[in-house]
């Protein structure tokens, strides 16, 4: 066990994921998750490097009990928690308040809490977990790393809504973008993979998981992204509708009689792949399509079509794109989707090598298309990015430079 470690915490609406990393190399030492917090069947699953995973029930555990169990499991495993330099927390929404990671004091915590209306399922939980950890160890620095921060560089024309600007300003209504920590990591990793300086790299990054977004990157900085005021807009996702006419929302309320809450549930939890096919898991939908299921085949066409639309738009936005990059669970593992997206875009300079596209993706990534605009698959590691920002802030008072987490190839090692 190294002398100095950093804890990475990702609190969800009913879960607590965490990792312990070497503070110098970024190497993952252990990780765990407490699932179904506040519900029946709460459990903790933890794995130390080189060991088999351990699962234990935590019936009806709260977040306080989940954090206590997390630290208790570290103690059992002999982890050197006395060497912790800090804890880095994924915080979904930083609003216009936070454009970079920050060490959390009472004022910062209150400001994050005040943004809860912009991310009601996530920010309150992050605030609670940070507060609980500050109470447990007041001397341990707590660092907030925001999903929205990487997109703080969006130009006005990319983030603005064409509504009265006094209304937009009063209620902080604008495009924020999400998945920024992942896109920041992947941007740095792709620059290294292609041998292009980070400050010169131009990319279209497709973060495709159950939640999905596309980001246009120019000179290593985000200049447009598909998610907006919330994570609902943009691509077809597991349960989210993606782009949807606002007038249709009013129709559902006025003519169908749905409440605001019912429309929100429809668009966020009952749409996307789930609404199209009855299944939200892309692997299940893919399997159904391979067996000739018409609903699944149609859904996959729509998913690929929407991705191509955004790629085309961002090719028009960013001059001299070096590569289209696929990342996250679906982006990294669904070779068929990559072919379905890029195959029809040969006239725009994208080519896919079928053999390379189906090859194993190494941790550092792989180029699967060598046309004028390369196609790459680059595994993401948001926890590495959070860990490096945390260590940099604690040691120097400043966040890590963009892409710093990619300096250590071993940081991608899995337990």
TrEMBL record:
GO terms (BP aspect): acetate metabolic process; acetyl-CoA biosynthetic process
PROSITE patterns attached to this UniProt entry: ACETATE_KINASE_1, ACETATE_KINASE_2
Pathway assigned to this chain's UniProt record: Metabolic intermediate biosynthesis; acetyl-CoA biosynthesis; acetyl-CoA from acetate: step 1/2
Keywords annotated in UniProt: ATP-binding, Cytoplasm, Kinase, Magnesium, Metal-binding, Nucleotide-binding, Transferase
Site residues (Transition state stabilizer), renumbered to this chain: 179, 240
GO CC, alphabetical: cytoplasm
Note on cofactor: Mg(2+). Can also accept Mn(2+).
Active site: 147 (proton donor/acceptor)
PANTHER family cross-referenced by the UniProt entry: ACETATE KINASE (PTHR21060), ACETATE KINASE-RELATED (PTHR21060:SF15)
UniProt-recorded name of the protein: Acetate kinase
């Amino acid at each position: 066990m190294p002398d100095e470690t950093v804890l990475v915490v990702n609190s969800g609406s009913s879960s607590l994921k965490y990792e312990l990393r070497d503070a110098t190399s970024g190497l993952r030492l252990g990780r765990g998750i407490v699932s179904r917090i506040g519900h029946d069947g709460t459990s903790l699953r933890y794995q130390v490097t080189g060991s088999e995973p351990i699962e234990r029930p935590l019936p009806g555990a709260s977040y306080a009990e989940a954090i206590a169990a997390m630290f208790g499991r570290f103690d059992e495993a002999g982890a050197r928690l006395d060497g912790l330099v800090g804890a880095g927390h994924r915080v979904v929404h930083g609003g216009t308040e936070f454009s970079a990671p920050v060490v959390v004091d009472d004022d910062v915590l209150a400001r994050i809490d005040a943004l809860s209306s912009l991310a009601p399922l996530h920010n309150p939980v992050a605030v609670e977990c940070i507060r609980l950890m500050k109470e447990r160890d007041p001397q341990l620095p707590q660092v907030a790393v925001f999903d929205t921060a990487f997109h703080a560089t969006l130009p006005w024309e990319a983030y603005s809504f064409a509504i009265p600007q006094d209304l937009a300003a009063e209620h902080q209504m604008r495009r924020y973008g999400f998945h920024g920590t992942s896109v920041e990591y992947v941007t740095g990793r792709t620059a290294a993979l292609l041998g292009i300086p980070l400050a010169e790299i131009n990319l279209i990054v497709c973060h495709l998981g159950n939640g999905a977004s596309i980001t246009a990157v120019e000179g290593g900085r985000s200049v447009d992204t598909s998610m907006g005021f919330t994570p609902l807009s943009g691509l077809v996702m597991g349960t989210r509708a993606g782009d949807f006419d606002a007038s249709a929302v009013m129709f559902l309320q006025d003519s169908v009689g749905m409440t605001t809450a019912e429309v929100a549930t429809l668009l966020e939890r009952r749409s996307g792949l789930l609404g199209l096919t009855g299944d939200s898991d892309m692997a299940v939908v893919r399997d159904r399509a391979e067996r000739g299921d018409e609903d699944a085949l149609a859904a996959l066409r729509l998913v690929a079509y929407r991705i191509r639309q955004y790629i085309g738009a961002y090719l028009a936005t960013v001059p001299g794109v070096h590569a289209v990059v696929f990342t996250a669970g679906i982006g990294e593992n669904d070779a068929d989707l990559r072919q379905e997206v890029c195959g029809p875009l040969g006239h725009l300079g994208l080519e896919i090598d079928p053999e390379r596209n189906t090859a194993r993706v190494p941790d550092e990534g792989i180029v699967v298309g060598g046309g004028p605009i390369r196609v790459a698959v680059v595994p993401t590691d948001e926890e590495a990015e959070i860990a490096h920002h945390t260590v940099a802030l604690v040691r120097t008072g400043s966040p890590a430079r963009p892409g710093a987490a990619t300096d250590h190839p071993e940081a991608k090692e899995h337990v």
